[in-house]
């Protein structure tokens, strides 16, 4: 992974090239204050002060140049100068006016690339950004590492990232922070976690389903549970997806990637909590023993679920994992899942559909997302749709007929496994970026991670 610690340094007056970041409304005033050589370059490039305008500005000496960027991003945006972090040559830079602040994150992430499957290519050396706020460097580096971890895990091909590899990621995280890991695997799941077992039982040998649990922190501190859907590949099961729907299903473990990254942030910052990380890791495969449409599944909670769609498997494995989390009486539960296409139809790729059974928790998450530039959009746990989950032969179905309110009914299904009075939020996140933006390449993406972390810091920091 990129060594983000080399990309940010305290500003002690060391030599550095200047970056002029100008907002469109301040363009005329900025240009009027520049010497003739700058105005000549601006005229030659026909710059108008429109967002996206950029140019190399000459200094008094040939080697003494600076960079100009016209940008309409807010001062709080992580992505304000990300394009420059990606494109400038190796060297050391500082902003001509003000501090980079939140933009340090985009600067770092712009220099991270997922190159596991590419041949070695010539790489540009580090572009170092100076800051007069050195206290922000450590937190920014942590966020960059966590975001890059999500991206890398989601981008990894399913052949190289199955349930065993997710378990290895949890073990590595535990070793780094002094946590403990326990794993319930294969046929041992059948009695205690029957839905996880059912979904994963058709996978090939070596890719057996498992529930991965990590615990960390002082038991006297408030207990929080973080749950991540770890479907390492989703064929759809016997209700098989078409090829177009299966193409990106390596990313169906994006919830687990978010959960691992968030757990890493909690432990690295030594947040005063008792952390319980749970990842139901499975591959939804097809074979002679695959679970079937119409099967009635037992659950850890004791409910029965009529399986009306084998491609609605994520909510099944999460149901058993949430039940396990609840058994330890947490003060808060967060779950992350690439759960429904309905959420993407409603909100597109950028906005995680966010559900919460607690108004204070919902408000804190939405405010945190806005503050850190990681927006969320709340959807309702609409009680009026709860009867859509009714079954003629079991306690409930996993996927109602008709397709109405698909992300809402999925969240309502999960709510059946969380008792009233336990604050819980569910992130139906895409974990993918379909097109590139500065600092945000096409591919795996952390969406909702920084919002959740900012909320946890605000609630539990000492």
What is the approximate shape? elongated
Radius of gyration: 24 Å
Superfamily (CATH H level) name of the largest domain = Zn peptidases
Structural class assignment: alpha/beta
Mean pLDDT: 97
List keywords for this structure.
462 residues, alpha/beta, Leucine Aminopeptidase, subunit E, domain 1, Aminopeptidase, 2 domains, nine-stranded mixed β-sheet, six-stranded mixed β-sheet, 15 helices, 20 strands, elongated
Can you describe this structure?
- With 462 residues, the chain is of the alpha/beta class.
- It has two domains: 4-132, Leucine Aminopeptidase, subunit E, domain 1, CATH 3.40.220.10; 141-460, 3-Layer(aba) Sandwich (Aminopeptidase).
- It contains 15 helices and 20 strands.
- The strands form four sheets. Strands 7, 8, 9, 10, 11, 14, 15, 16 and 18 form a nine-stranded mixed sheet that branches. A six-stranded mixed sheet has the order 1-6-5-2-4-3.
Give the topology, please.
Layout: E1 8-10, E2 17-22, H1 27-32, H2 36-44, E3 54-57, E4 66-70, H3 82-87, E5 91-95, H4 103-109, E6 127-131, H5 137-155, H6 163-177, E7 180-185, H7 189-192, H8 194-200, E8 210-216, E9 223-228, E10 230-234, H9 243-246, H10 254-268, E11 274-284, E12 296-298, E13 304-306, H11 314-326, E14 332-337, H12 341-347, E15 353-356, H13 359-372, E16 377-378, E17 396-397, H14 406-415, E18 424-428, E19 432-433, E20 443-444, H15 449-460
Parallel strand pairs: 1-6, 2-4, 2-5, 5-6, 9-11, 9-14, 10-11, 13-17, 14-18, 15-16
Antiparallel strand pairs: 3-4, 7-8, 8-11, 12-13, 15-18, 19-20
